[in-house]
Every structure is written in C-alpha cells, then in structure tokens.
Recover the amino acids of this structure.
C-alpha cells in the first residue's frame, strides 16, 4: 500500500518570498502524485498532478512540483508567494493501474505574513 | 461546466432528524465520492460510486446512506446522527473509476449535529 508524508505541519513565509512544501511518498512502483489546496471553509482544488514524463510539473496559480524518484519526493514550489496563497496544502499519492483511491498526507498549513 | 455543486452549504440537525446532502456535476465524470473531513485533518473516504454503482463503502455506519440516482447526482442521506458526525462533507468526482487524473471537489457541506 502507498503512503505519503508531509513533514511540516505549518510553514510561515513573507509575501513575495519563495515557497517549498515537502512531500515524501512510499510506493514500490511509479506513483501517481497530486497536490491539492484548500482555502478555509472550501473544498480541495487540484493544483497539479504527475503521472509520467517530465519530472517538473507546472500547475495552476504559478505552482510547480518536481518528482524525484531517488528521494521519493514530490515537493511543491512557488517563486513568489501572495497573501491569497495562505491555505492548507495536501499531497496525495495514488497507486495507479486501476487502484484509484489516493492516500492523502496530513496537510501543511501555509501562513503568509505581509 | 467544470464544477461540483453541493447543497446545502451549512446544515444544523438534531440527533433525531433526517436530512440529505446533495451533490451534482455536469462534467460527464463517471465516478463520484463522498469524503468526511474534520478540522485540521485530511479528507477521509466514505463511499465511492463508479458508473452509478456503489463500489466502495469504507465501513461507514448505517446512519449514513448514499444514493446515486443518475450519473450527475449523488446524495447522502443522514439519520440519527451523533455529535461526533459534525464535520465538513465533501463530494468529489473524477473522469473515470481509475481516478488517476485527479478529483474535482465541491466546496462541501458544513454539518453540525446538536
């Protein structure tokens, strides 16, 4: 079975600073990887996904993530954070091949200081 | 239309009440899901419908009863709930039952059981 770890419960950055949120997964084969964002009181929105191919994935809202097989990581990055990026971020891993229920990480809360 | 619509947005119900949550999507997605989310936690899977048939029930208590009247609609019938059932209930859909293209989530129903 797959698992996912988000080691940081909270991350605080200043507006305009760069951001990196960490995600590590455990799965024997190439996983399907996702990042979702959840603003307070809202549902989750898919930021980006990785299945195969180019290991640097571009998403919505200026986010990108890089799949590193050697490190079992799929970290989310943004070069310049806006106050509206303050939210909860969830990494998720799916096993693919018809196993369609993703496993969510516990989430990382992003706090943005002005 | 690229949205999943959930109604109502907020619901307060007594422990003896019967109520229903509704979810609708018009993206032609063939899989639909109910998730439960407690504060500061990732979403927990409750039910999966694939091609209008219940395919997964994650050992959810019988006081929660899902229904999929057609490929666009998903209901969750609630009866005799407990205060610990208070949570954000999220509906999601995906293109196919593999779910590997990611989910589209609704904004949720905030349920309070009194």
């Amino acid at each position: 079975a797959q698992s996912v770890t988000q080691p940081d419960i909270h991350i605080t950055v200043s507006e305009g600073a760069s951001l990196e949120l960490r995600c590590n997964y455990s799965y024997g084969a190439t996983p399907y990887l996702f990042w979702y964002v959840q603003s307070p009181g809202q549902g989750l929105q898919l930021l980006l996904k990785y299945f195969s191919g180019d290991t640097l994935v571009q998403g919505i809202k200026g986010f990108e993530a890089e799949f590193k097989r050697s490190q079992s990581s799929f970290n989310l990055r943004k070069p310049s954070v806006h106050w509206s990026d303050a939210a909860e971020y969830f990494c998720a891993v799916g096993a693919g091949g018809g196993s369609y229920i993703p496993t969510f990480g516990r989430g990382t809360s992003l706090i943005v200081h002005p | 239309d690229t949205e999943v619509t959930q109604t109502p947005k907020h619901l307060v119900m007594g422990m003896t009440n019967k109520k229903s949550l509704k979810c609708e999507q018009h993206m032609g997605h063939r899989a639909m899901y109910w998730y439960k989310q407690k504060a500061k936690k990732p979403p927990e899977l409750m039910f999966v419908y694939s091609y209008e048939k219940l395919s997964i029930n994650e050992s959810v208590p019988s006081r929660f009863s899902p229904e999929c009247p057609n490929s666009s609609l998903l209901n969750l019938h609630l009866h005799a709930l407990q205060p610990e059932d208070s949570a954000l209930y999220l509906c999601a859909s995906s293109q196919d039952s593999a779910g590997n293209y990611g989910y589209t989530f609704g904004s949720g129903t905030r349920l309070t059981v009194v």
